[in-house]
């Protein structure tokens, strides 16, 4: 059995006493061991946190496991190793998310093993999940439509805002809602969790928009957005 507390890695041999892993120096956790006694884990190397492969608890040398090519982060977590020497784990990607890797210990060169990225799985959505998201878009569209209908219009600028800003937004949300209903009834599995997250995020971001001022530009071919701000000191619509 192997383990660690985030500061020190250890091994508990069958029928033996708990031992601290002295190699590699700075070993913080040991996560996996196979029947051959090979151990994998993570260690601290300055500001970096790479993985390690240790042939045995008594070994005086080890291999550093690095992130796959293209990943900038040096956070690598080697989680397990099987009896054939296949090491698996995860690393921190450029997107700030963790991703899987694997590689064979036989490919260690000069004390370094470069992980091979594993494609992230796509988890299909269920029809109920897609219908729920469709309902959110439909409700949002109808709410904004009612806001547009109740909007007090006193001049042509406010009429434009009610029709072409609020009205257009409510129509777009309703269209997305209908498209999601269709997908939910036919092929919900084609909308994976990543796409669902994007759509929920878009809805949340829409309602974080705060309109502080609005000005319809009658001569829009004269003023660019930059020159409008320079001339008036105001934004057409400010977002927070």
Notes on the protein architecture:
By secondary structure, the protein is of the alpha+beta class. The chain folds into two domains: 2-117, no CATH class; 127-208. The protein is built from four helices and twelve strands, in the order E-E-E-E-E-E-E-E-E-E-E-E-H-H-H-H. It has helices at residues 127-150, 156-186, 193-206, 225-232; strands at 2-4, 9-11, 19-20, 27-33, 39-43, 51-54, 63-66, 76-81, 86-92, 98-104, 112-114, 116-117. Strands 4-5-6-7-11 form a five-stranded mixed sheet, with no helix packed on it. The protein is elongated and about 80 Å long. The relative contact order is 0.08. Residues 219-224 and 235-240 have low confidence and may be disordered.
Give a quick summary of the entry.
This protein has 240 residues and is α+β, with helices and mostly antiparallel strands.
What is the 3D form?
elongated
Summed up, the domain count is 2
Q: Compute the average pLDDT.
A: 85
Pick out the low-confidence regions: 219-224, 235-240
Helix count from the secondary structure assignment: 4
Element-level helix/strand string: EEEEEEEEEEEEHHHH
Radius of gyration: 28 Å
Assembly form of the protein? single chain
Trace the largest sheet across and list its strands.
4-5-6-7-11
- Structural category is alpha+beta
* Proportion of helical residues: 25-40%
Please describe the biggest sheet, giving its number of strands, its sense, and whether it closes into a barrel.
5 strands, mixed
Give the strand tally: 12
Q: Please give the alpha-carbon distance between the first and last residues.
A: 52 Å
- Which range does the strand content fall in? 15-25%
């Amino acid at each position: 059995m192997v383990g660690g507390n985030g500061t020190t890695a250890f091994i508990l041999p069958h029928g033996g006493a708990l031992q601290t892993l002295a190699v590699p120096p700075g070993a913080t956790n040991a996560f996996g061991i196979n029947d051959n006694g090979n151990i994998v884990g993570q260690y601290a190397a300055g500001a970096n946190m790479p993985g390690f492969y240790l042939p045995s608890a008594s070994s005086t040398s080890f291999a550093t496991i690095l992130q796959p090519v293209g990943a900038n982060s040096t956070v690598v977590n080697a989680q397990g190793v099987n009896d054939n020497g296949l090491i698996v784990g995860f690393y921190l990607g450029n997107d700030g998310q963790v991703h899987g890797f694997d590689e064979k210990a036989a490919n260690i060169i000069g004390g370094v093993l470069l992980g091979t990225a594993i494609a992230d799985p796509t988890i299909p959505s269920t029809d109920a999940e897609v219908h729920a998201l469709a309902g959110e878009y439909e409700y949002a569209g109808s709410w904004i439509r009612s806001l547009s209908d109740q909007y007090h219009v006193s001049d042509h600028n406010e009429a434009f805002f009610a029709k072409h800003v609020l009205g257009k937004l409510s129509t777009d949300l309703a269209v997305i809602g209908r498209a999601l209903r269709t997908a939910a009834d036919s092929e919900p599995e084609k909308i994976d969790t990543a796409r669902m997250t994007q759509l929920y995020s878009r809805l949340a971001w829409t309602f974080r928009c705060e309109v502080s001022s609005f000005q319809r530009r009658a001569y829009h071919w004269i003023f660019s957005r930059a020159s409008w701000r320079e001339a008036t000191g105001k934004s057409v619509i400010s977002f927070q």
